[in-house]
Sequence to fold (367 residues):
Amino acid sequence: MRVVCSFVGGAGHLHPQIPLHRALAAAGHELTLRGSASATQTAPREIYRTIAGRPDQRSQLADEIAPLAPVDIEHELAVIARHFAGDAARTSAAAISADLASTDLVVCDEVDFGAIGAAQQAGIPVAVVAVAVSGAIVRPRLLHDALTALGHDLGMSGPVRPYGDAFVVPFDPSMRDPAHPAPSNALWMRPDSGAAPQPDGSIVATLGTEFNTESGDLFDRILSALALLDAPATLAVGRDLDPSRFGDQPAHIKIRQYVDLAALVPRASVVLHHGGSGLFLQSVLGGAPQVVFPMGADQPFTADRVHDLGLGRVLDPMTATPDEIARVISAVRADGNMRSRVLALRSSTLALPEPAAVVEHLSRIAR
Fold:
């Protein structure tokens, strides 16, 4: 098959798809990847015939870190309709339109409504990959008007159908918010397992690749907390921030633009992060409890799952002090029951069907 793989956001919209992309390539299918240039730089280039990255601001150093804003759930839900089903969708649809005449299958992330609609208008099967672990950020009833308008603009007779022909979920079913169940066409898929957990007492911290430049002084407060602890710590600030802006640090703290989280997280005693679904999953697979600072997007919903499943602690990014952060880190590191819950969820996640089984299903529905 000739497969177009598309994503509309940052790396967090690409990485959950990669196990499926690898399985498609391993089965002999021909892949084209389209998405933001900064995120395509992190893709395994050898599995794609073509990679076409759209320019984005994340490819350049940011001059400033914007102040933190209070979390506004209604605003975050509205962004899905206004942005992802609006201008971003039209940009994505235009980006893949030239590929569709010779395409058998489209694979895209769950808010790439432009790719979904373009495929549906062209009569091409589309596999939608979940990228929000909670399932709470994409709510079709709130999207109906926007998806109807998008469908009209794309020449469809009705609204874009957001779940596509197959809805691939690379998360354990228990991770999803019970109030927002997966659709009836869901296919559960095992993510990449990564290295086995071997905790060495270290700490890993990151605020991701989108909200890192909208985090106010949170990096500074995290660094001050890490300075209070006698544990090796690594803080990843993102490719678009210069580590030198944070000044000199104690010898046990390293600040990097980019780190290999797949190598570091399995050795961590705790992971501090923003509540991105990718970091949530990577922490579970690495066997590490989490301390979460939700700032926006789907992060508040992810934080709720961390709390409800007993996988870590949630702190207010606006008000958490260095002393509070340090105390919570110490408590989480010492909680053996919490780590046991993480490891049990890791085992459940790795028992999901392999990506190759999903590829077999997609091969049957592709034209």
